[in-house]
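Q: Predict the assembly, please.
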Amino acid sequence: MWMDVVMLSRIQFALNSGFHYIYPPMSIGIGLMLVIFEGIYLKTKNPLYKKITKFWVKIFALTFALGVATGLVQLFAFGTNWARYSRFVGDVFGSALGAEGIFAFFLEAGFLGVMLFGWDRVSSKMHYLSTICVCLGAHFSAIWIVVANSWMQTPAGFKIVGTGALAKAVVTDFWAMIFNPSSVDRIIHVVVGCWLTGIFFILSVSAYYFLKKRNQEFSHATMKIGLWMAAVVLLLQLISADSSARGVAVHQPSKFAAMEGIYHTEKEAPLALIGWVDEKKQAVRGIKIPGLLSFLTHRDFEAEVKGFDQIPEDARPPVNLVFQTYHLMIAMWGLMVLVVVAGFVGWKKRRGPNGPCGP
Amino acid sequence: MIISVAFPHIANQVGWMTAEIGRQPWVVYGLLRTSEGVSPTIHSTQVMISILMFIVIYILLFVLFLFLLDRKIKHGPEDGEEAAIPHVPLYTAGRSFFAFSSASKPRDRAGGGGDCIEFNTIPSPTSSIAGAFTQEENAKNDRPAVYRNPLKTLPGDPP
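A: Predicted assembly structure:
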């Protein structure tokens, strides 16, 4: 058979994770925007913002429900498909996963009820508090999951007990395990990505109402806040991306080499903006900027960047796939920037002195 | 901008793929290979069947999600009693209630700005009576500026 159990299990887990990962970023991003919208409502008492909050709370609840349902599948998969992995890392990975359930999920799910149904039943301050708790709960969930995953990327604060099939990792330093070398960078990168997901969802719905000429005042307000938020958060993501990528270069050289398609360790390494990795010839064809990769990684155009020649052949990831996914992610960032710039330009045209909605 | 909703989603997915496939062949980087982490007792046929099952369920779930989402978005925000109070002087969506009830057609669009974002709202049957009057009209007809249901207390009311 052309695919073995390992490959099939990986495909299944990727399918589960990929499908799950549609929803939590929406909850987290919308959660943040809810805190902002309701905050504006409490500050200005403008009922428009109550209407906005109420509308997005419903969408939040929908994404939350699907996030929970699809997330459970992965927990079972650890037992069914990855039993040996679970035995090996259970003491470490399980503690982060358990913390997610206790600290984050209960906080989020508990206050969700107040946020959904408490509009006229609790005071407005209490309601705002529950919105904040729901938003925090959503964020903590992401943080714990990313901590667990980051430990898999850059393990720290543990020791191996036993040998052979009975070997397992146990925690020796809890905080070193939580704050392993990649966790902070990756938490920020993931959470900011989630914010973008929520913000662009809100922008998209606002744009839809714009074009349909419905709920104009409503979409007008959300569009304005969304555009500004998107501009700020896209900038944040750029800073976080730089920091994460440099972290990967230090701690996971094989992943970094695949992301950038570096086969030969070299000085003044070029950055490929777009390209195709020829895995047989061990070269990248595409548009390259000389020296830029060295500069981005080490802040020095002359610096040396490690390539695959320093990594044993049986420890290399599939290069072209990682290269393409990584570059597609960056391209998406570029597209989002373009959308926001176009949004601001369009806004100015409408609002400007000669525009249809000018003074 | 409507399709821009997909961009961060794609970025999330491929970013995650970069992180996870980039970690291969390790499941725990430098410690445990992925091939060493898989359950010893399962068979590839079983996994194949469960993958197919997941695909079917996920397609159904995703369609359900899109259906519910679409319904909520098409339905739009509800005009609650408070939500419909005009708060900008030029807000005239309320007038359209009259246009809707008397002539059953939208008001003529002022200024010809067809894609202007305000002032030409087509009335929706869901808009509540509370938004039916502008502040000027309320003042003229000696109605309270804010319509409220006398039977319902609002948060902030004295007990």
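Residues 216-251 of chain A form the longest helix (36 residues). Chain A touches chain B through 106 residues (CB under 8 Å).
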